[in-house]
Design a protein that fits this description.
The chain has 381 residues and is an alpha+beta fold. Among the domains are: 90 residues, no CATH class; 87 residues, no CATH class; 83 residues, no CATH class. The protein has ten helices and twelve strands. The protein has a five-stranded antiparallel sheet with strand order 6-5-4-3-7. A five-stranded antiparallel sheet has the order 11-10-9-8-12. A hairpin with a 2-residue loop joins strand 4 and strand 5. Helix 1 packs across helix 4 and helix 4 runs antiparallel to helix 5.
Length: 381
């Protein structure tokens, strides 16, 4: 616009364009504000929904945990007994072996009531000889325990809900149908037919599979490590002084006392690098498995004079050069293997009358102990 108040040519058109752009921007800003308000409302509703669903989830979880607690309380705690094969490990006994006479009669009364009260079709009935079928007994005992838990929960006003409906749907009829379908129980309609137990496990197949599984576990574990034989002066890679493995910067040694791998530390660091020879994992496994290869045996005589006079040895001593310490032991009259100072006394030669030791192999050690002590297998590690 000029000083006298007149706009130059074209100003009106340009001014109108600017005004239109400004109006459009104001409209977009208004729309954005409305969208922001709507978004805030949606976020608030979403948060409220999350809190509500979280509360429902917590209620459901609480109900499930309560149901599990009720089942555990109703079924009782399992007893323990020595494991199969004399291992002594505790195992849970099945219901049929830990139930008292009263519990057996309670289960029988409940099943009789169930048959009268529900009166199922013939193909779904539990035949009277059910106590003679081991698997059927365990199924029915579990069904009874679940029923007790469901009825106890249903009788509690604070927990009244769908437990009994759940029991009917998920426990009662599926259990009955499973018993009739998978057990030799249908043959008992008119007269009891004894169970025909399955064939026992093939011991050879089991032993083979266990060995294969152990080998596979070792193979997977060994993939993490590089293995080294400790070969100081006087030893060879075929008969090393120790066995080590490394994963990154972490070292471990094979203890010859408990035959387990242990982490090296400041007090027991890995040996000097020049004494280590890397070996394949399978060779390391073979060395670790050959426990007797790490042991030195001697026949112990009372002293050198007895040995020279042709007197026989009095016992057997042995040494294990484990990385954490030397371990010497002698086979005693009553106590079996026990720590001894005989090896130190013989090698030191400072005592006035040290025992005399003659090196032997493990087979000779076994023969001597059988002759001297009347024992076999005493050299096993």
């Amino acid at each position: 616009m000029t000083a006298d108040g007149y706009a130059p040519d074209g100003y009106g058109q340009e001014g109108h364009a600017q005004d239109g752009e400004l109006a459009r921007m104001r409209a977009e800003l208004t729309a954005l504000r409305a969208w922001r308000t709507e978004l805030e409302e949606l976020v608030q509703r979403f948060a409220q929904g999350v809190r509500r669903e979280q509360g429902e989830t917590e209620e459901i979880l609480s109900e499930v945990l309560g149901r599990l607690d009720a089942v555990e309380n109703a079924s009782g705690r399992g007893a323990t007994a020595p494991g199969a094969g004399g291992s002594g490990a505790p195992v849970h006994l099945p219901w049929s072996q830990r139930a008292s006479e009263a519990e057996w009669r309670e289960l029988a009364d409940w099943l009789d009531w169930l048959g009268r009260h529900y009166a199922p079709q013939l193909h779904l009935r539990i035949w009277p000889c059910w106590p003679a079928h081991g698997g059927v007994v365990e199924e029915l005992a579990a069904l009874h325990a679940a029923w007790r838990a469901a009825t106890e929960a249903d009788a509690d006003p604070a927990r009244a809900g769908s437990e009994l409906a759940y029991w009917h749907q998920m426990w009662l009829w599926p259990t009955v149908e499973r018993i009739r379908q998978y057990y030799m129980f249908s043959e008992c309609e008119t007269d009891h037919a004894a169970d025909r137990p399955g064939r026992p496990t093939d011991p050879a197949a089991l032993e083979t599979r266990v060995a294969e599984a152990a080998a596979e576990r070792r193979r997977r574990e060994n993939e993490r490590y590089a293995f080294f034989a400790e070969v100081p002066e006087g030893f060879t890679a075929e008969r090393p002084d120790g066995l080590w493995r490394r994963a990154g910067d972490d070292w471990e040694y094979l203890s010859l006392l408990d035959w387990e791998w242990h982490a090296a530390d400041a007090e027991l660091p890995p040996p000097p690098e020049e004494t280590l020879r890397e070996v394949p994992a399978d060779r390391a496994d073979a060395l670790a498995a050959d426990r007797q290869g790490w042991v030195t045996y001697w026949a112990r005589y009372a002293d050198e004079n007895d040995w020279r006079a042709g007197e026989g040895p009095v016992t057997v001593v042995r040494r294990r050069r484990s990385p954490e310490r030397l371990y010497d032991e002698a086979y005693g009259v009553r106590d079996g293997w026990a720590p001894t100072a005989s090896v130190y006394a013989f090698l030191d030669a400072r005592p006035s009358n040290p025992p005399h030791l003659v090196g032997i192999d493990v087979q000779e050690a076994e023969r001597l102990l059988r002759s001297l002590r009347g024992v076999t297998g005493a050299t096993e590690l």
